Amino acid sequence: MILKPNQREQILPLPVVLITTVSSQGIRNAAPWSNFTPILRPLDEILLASWLKRDTLENIRQTGEFVVNVPPAGMEDAVMICARNYPPEVDEFQEAGLKSRLSTKVKPPGIEGCLA
User: N or C, which end of the chain has less CB nearby within 10 Å?
Assistant: First the structure.
């Protein structure tokens, strides 16, 4: 069987993280991401892959900053809300009822209750 690139998620169990960014206009963004991989040990760099144009990618390209948040069990509803296709001017933290926590090295906040 030959799968198109966007079909591989149907057969591979991929972990889902929430990538948080802040746009150059100051809008917070939180997006579920399953195509990410640590590429150096001890996890100094990671690779994010996407076949879709996403606000998250645009924010990362503009600012160079993001936070990887590992959501715990029980946060499925918030993750699904963040998966919706919102316009860039929508604060996804607000839409999903996420509480932010300050990051120590980058501008984008982490998500309270997630590992970061």
Answer: N
